[in-house]
Specification:
Number of helices of chain B: 26
Structural class of chain A: alpha/beta
CATH superfamily of chain A: Response regulator
CATH architecture of chain A: 3-Layer(aba) Sandwich
Oligomer: heterodimer
Distance between the termini of chain A: 15 Å
Order of helices and strands of chain A: EHEHEHEHEEH
Largest sheet of chain B: 9 strands, mixed
Number of helices of chain A: 5
Strand order of the largest sheet of chain B: 25-23-24-26-27-28-29-31-30
CATH topology of chain A: Rossmann fold
């Protein structure tokens, strides 16, 4: 699993820190970003298997991350997490081919299971 | 004795005096129920909060903000209902709420508190104050205050003082710049250190330091010296920061000198090495604030370091290093020290030793400061420590390790009189290699016998093992051996006393939102409640391991070391994240319970330090309020419609139905046993009617008894017509307050018994009695024995006894009320037969075992 790469984008450090720790325990290669610009920059040079992104962020938001990822790498799965869970956002994300959508707080076990499903497809 | 009599008489008078009923009881009862509802909702939010911040969820500050605003609103609602119920009897509770609310908002919104201490004496520091005083101070104060170890007298200069110092000298912008990133960081750091060393101590801080130093000088004389040591917020927590910050030894105890040393310590937070080390662990400059500890210098003849586990990971062996003089030489590896290996048995066994050359030593100079000098010539050939000192140090180290539940790195010194001092204790990082072997051994638990499975509700996940200690009542906790597994019938917030030492908790009854449950989450004690039969399945003294996770709880026979080590390894990982710890810190003002005992002086609004404390205060005082009001039951009976209970025994009980207490809502006449729809009243009456408990023949009083009864109760004896007239039950479907006066005893039972265990309480009060003082105290002892057996918390004052119990399921409570009903009937004339101390035990045993004849 060490060659499988996961990107986590969230403007709060704690989310990235915790996700990295949890996912690295399972042997993933994890990179975290506090905002979307450098993350998208990184994506230009590197393909990730799964991108976990916050929806609401200053500057580029999660929907734009989703669109960019899908344009660059249609096979990369995107998991959206958000503190502001609402139906509209979820529907829009689903239309944009999001793999999964979680309201925060996200149970780490469930996030891991979702990542496993994403990788199995 | 006179005093006791007059108190009891005034108590009884009070109990039948005019009722100060501004609001009718039914209205008060409505407020009471609203308080319960709000309290429950708040406790659920607190439980959820702890769960979400427990390391198994990704959460962000938005969650914390919204969950907290929900909680604050609910607690506030509870206070409003409480004020209505008590008619604003506790106006200071709102002040407590505001104070705690401000603390929490300070943490959540990262704003500076309006008021905080700059200097704190060690005696005022508790284990959870590492944000205020830094890790080193918090650990030392804990060992001094709680473990009563010999830690030098000291005071802490807080992180708040650090903030003030930086603000006063305009250095906060510097830190912001460093956080944003600068081109030449080394130079920027050097500049910042220079500004700190040349900075001015803020006047408030200077004054506080002066008076703290003066207090030390008053005790230790004008010529005493201090060690001024770093105690960064995160130091000695999960990362040791060993050797990263400065310590200034042998500082003359004077405000100016201490101030200078303090600045040196502050500056060391920004040394190039310290900043690099912090970065490695995810801290940016300014994440970590610097507090300092000022400890009275020990005139050390020898000192050194203990690793409570061997560096090769052998957890059964500890290592002591020792050299002559001050510890600096050992800590910094400047001298070839002695080394002793000790096996950690109940009686420590020295299993290896090696004498170092110890050719130099560091000593304190008479004028202040320290110097390195040559050691006496023969010092290399003799052991620094005689065997008894090695064993004494080993015993202390094992004790400290057990307390902090992790391997420890301990600094110690022995002064010229042979007294041992502990100067520091911090977590020792066990090597990765040692941790991994623990994981490989997993699976061995599969071979262990399962003692209990698929029972109860997991309150806190984790694994813990040790010897079973079955506690029948809170008093027994005094004998609780550290590291044991607590098994109890009921859950109780009294368990807080042993929380730092308990390996796991298993109870027969209880709920995941009880006070105890939130304590378990706070202390991360693996806990399962409501197992139904843990106290029967698990034997006192038996070695067991509890494994509690998403799949439920399993109790294995024996101590499954492999499971325990693995679990510790996993749960420690999230704790290593600074952001995680920082966010979790808010729980210290939310879920910790400090108000444990309603009888202690600090059970006041001022004593409330957390939201949980406020809820506890409200619940306790609300029950008290209800009890107080219902005590005027006889008065209510006159003004309300009172229904006489027609029972086969002459109890003379009348019922004031405040809603759902009697079938058909009858308003006059009499009611039969089967008409009682109040769950708790029905259970109590059931007990009173139990065959054999109602002694129908009168037990003769001797002359002495008769005389004392005449002296004490004129107002009652003249009224006494066949017990009738005073026995009033104020009842609703889920509640009863029963006041009963049988002859010379006054008995009160107040109980709320609903489907929600969290809401339920029972309050049992017994006073008076027509016999001499000796017999009366025997009766109190007997009632106490019985109530303790049922898990009550008890208090006695003279011949008044009060028992309380809360958070108990409806079924258990009904069974208990049945027993209490029997007790009420049984004790009617009991004191007349309690002729010697041995009979107390005998009759108590008889009662508990169901033999009711005298």
């Amino acid at each position: 699993m060490a060659d499988q790469k996961i990107m986590v984008i969230d403007d709060e450090k704690i989310v990235g820190d915790m996700a990295r720790l949890a996912l690295e325990q399972d042997g993933f290669n994890v990179e975290t970003f506090l905002n979307a610009e450098p993350a998208l920059e990184r994506l230009k040079n590197e393909r990730f298997d799964v991108v976990v992104t916050d929806l609401k962020m200053k500057g580029i938001d999660g929907m734009e991350v989703l669109r960019t990822v899908k344009r660059l790498y249609p096979e990369t799965k995107v998991i959206m997490i958000t503190a502001f869970a609402n139906l509209d956002a979820a529907i829009e994300a689903l239309r944009g081919d999001v793999h999964d959508f979680f309201p925060k707080p996200v149970k780490i076990k469930e996030l891991k299971a979702s990542i496993q499903r994403a990788l199995a497809k | 004795m006179r005093k006791v009599f007059s108190r009891i008489i005034s108590f009884l008078r009070r109990s039948k005096g005019p009722a100060p009923e501004a609001t009718p009881f039914a209205t008060a009862f409505k407020y009471f129920k609203e308080v319960l509802e709000n309290n429950n909702r708040a406790l659920e939010i607190i439980a959820d909060f702890g769960d979400k911040l427990g390391g198994e969820y990704l959460f962000d500050i938005n969650y914390i903000k919204s969950a907290y605003s929900d909680l604050a609103g609910t607690v506030y609602g509870s206070i409003q209902d409480f004020d209505l119920l008590t008619q604003n009897r506790y106006p200071r509770l709102r002040g407590a709420f505001s104070r705690i609310d401000e603390h929490i908002k300070t943490l959540i919104y990262d704003v500076t508190p309006s008021r905080a201490e700059m200097v704190l004496d060690y005696k005022d520091i508790t284990w959870n104050m590492f944000r205020e005083v830094g890790g080193k101070n918090a650990a030392l104060a804990e060992m001094k205050n709680y473990l009563k170890l010999n830690v030098p007298d000291a005071f802490a200069v807080t992180t708040h003082a650090f903030d003030e110092f930086m603000k006063h000298n305009g250095l906060q912008d510097e830190i912001e710049r460093l956080r944003a990133g600068v081109d030449d960081e080394d130079e920027a750091l050097a500049r910042l250190r220079g500004s700190i060393l040349g900075g001015e101590i803020p006047p408030d801080l200077a004054t506080a330091l002066e008076s703290a130093v003066e207090r030390i000088r008053e005790t230790f004389g004008r010529d005493c010296f201090l060690a001024v040591r770093s105690s960064a917020e995160e130091e000695d927590g999960d990362f040791s920061f060993a050797g990263q910050f400065d310590t200034v030894l042998n500082v003359p105890a004077a405000g100016r000198e201490v101030g200078e040393a303090y600045k040196k310590v502050l500056g060391s937070l920004f040394s190039v090495n310290a900043v690099a080390y912090q970065k490695m662990h995810g801290y940016r400059p300014g994440d970590n604030k610097m507090a300092a500890g000022c400890l009275v210098m020990v005139d050390a003849a020898k000192s050194g370091v203990i690793y409570s586990v061997a560096p090769n990971g052998d957890k059964d062996v500890l290592v002591i290093n020792a050299a002559w003089g001050l510890g600096t030489s050992v800590v910094e590896g400047q001298t070839d020290a002695d080394m002793y290996m000790v096996k950690k048995d109940a009686e420590p066994v020295i299993v290896g030793r090696r004498y170092g050359k110890k050719d130099s030593m560091v000593v304190a100079r008479e004028t202040g400061g320290v110097e390195k000098v040559e050691a006496p010539e023969d010092s290399g050939e003799v052991s620094c420590l005689p065997d008894d000192e090695v064993r004494a140090l080993a015993g202390l180290a094992a004790h400290i390790e057990k307390h902090f539940r992790r391997p420890q790195d301990i600094e110690w010194a022995i002064d010229k009189s042979g007294k041992i001092y502990i100067l520091q204790s911090r977590p020792l990082r066990v090597s990765e290699a040692a941790e991994k072997t623990a994981v490989v051994r997993e699976g061995a638990a599969g071979a262990r016998a399962v003692l209990m499975q698929d029972k109860g509700v997991v309150v806190q996940k984790g694994v813990g093992g040790g010897r079973v200690f079955v506690a029948r009542h809170p008093g027994e906790l005094d004998k609780f051996p550290k590291g044991s597994v607590l098994v109890a019938k009921y859950d109780s917030s009294n368990f807080v006393r042993i929380m730092p030492y308990v390996s796991a908790i298993i109870t027969d009854t209880g709920t995941p939102t009880s006070h105890m449950a939130s304590l378990c989450r706070e202390f991360r004690v693996p806990t399962v409640v409501n197992t139904g039969e843990a106290t029967t399945l698990l034997q006192h003294g038996q070695e067991v391991t509890l494994k509690a996770d998403d799949d439920g709880a399993v109790v294995y026979d024996g101590i499954a070391k492999e499971l325990i080590e693995q679990a510790v390894g996993n749960s420690m990982k999230m704790e290593e994240l600074f952001e995680f710890r920082k966010r979790r810190y808010v729980l210290r003002y939310i879920s910790i319970l400090n108000l444990v005992d309603p009888l202690l002086d600090d059970f006041t609004p001022e004593g409330c330090k957390t939201m949980h404390d406020i809820l506890r205060f409200i619940h306790e005082k609300s029950v008290g309020e209800l009890v107080d009001r219902a005590r005027y039951g006889s008065d209510m009976a006159k003004r309300h419609m009172a229904i006489r209970l027609d029972l086969p025994i002459p109890t003379g009980i009348v019922v004031v139905d405040i809603g759902g207490g009697l079938a058909g809502g009858r308003k006059s006449g009499s009611a039969k046993r089967e008409d009682i729809t109040s769950v708790p009243l029905s259970a109590i009456i059931g007990g009173m009617l139990h065959p054999g408990v109602w002694q129908s023949h009168a037990v003769s009083l001797n002359a002495n008894d008769f005389l004392s009864s005449m002296m004490r109760m004129p107002d009652i004896t003249t009224d006494g017509k066949d017990y009738a007239g005073y026995n009033v039950a104020v009842a609703s479907g889920e509640y009863v307050n029963l006041s009963i006066r049988f002859g010379y005893h006054f008995n009160m039972l107040d109980c709320y018994c609903s489907e929600n265990a969290r809401n339920n309480h029972v309050y049992f009060r017994f006073v008076g009695g027509a016999t001499d003082m000796v017999k009366r105290s025997r009766r109190i002892e007997l009632i106490g024995t019985v109530l303790r057996e049922y898990g009550f918390n008890i208090v006695t004052k003279g011949d008044l006894i009060i028992g309380r119990l809360a958070n108990i399921s409806r079924g258990d409570l009904e069974r208990l009320l049945d027993k209490l009903g029997r007790l009420v009937a049984y004790t009617r004339q009991l004191d007349a037969v309690l002729n010697d101390d041995a009979s107390v035990e005998e009759y108590a045993k008889n009662f508990i075992e169901g033999r009711y004849t005298f």
